[in-house]
Automatic annotation (TrEMBL):
InterPro entries on file: SIS_dom_sf
Name of this protein: Glutamine--fructose-6-phosphate transaminase (isomerizing)
Gene Ontology terms for molecular function: carbohydrate derivative binding; glutamine-fructose-6-phosphate transaminase (isomerizing) activity
Gene Ontology CC, one term: cytosol
GO biological process terms, semicolon-separated: fructose 6-phosphate metabolic process; protein N-linked glycosylation; UDP-N-acetylglucosamine metabolic process
SUPFAM superfamilies: SIS domain (SSF53697)
């Protein structure tokens, strides 16, 4: 499988690549059976006051 990103000016490439890579990570997590809305160990790294 390949993820193709169209050619674009270099300074815009991180912005253009972010969405497809996030979607890829989302679909991989779903296939692995991970709960994407409640990641494990989140409370250890994030505190809300």
């Amino acid at each position: 499988h390949c993820l193709f990103i169209p050619p674009i000016r270099e300074e815009f490439s991180p912005i253009l690549a972010a969405l497809p890579l996030q979607l890829l990570a989302y679909h991989i997590a779903i296939k692995r059976g991970c709960h994407v809305d409640q990641p494990r160990n989140l409370a250890k790294s994030v505190t809300v006051e």
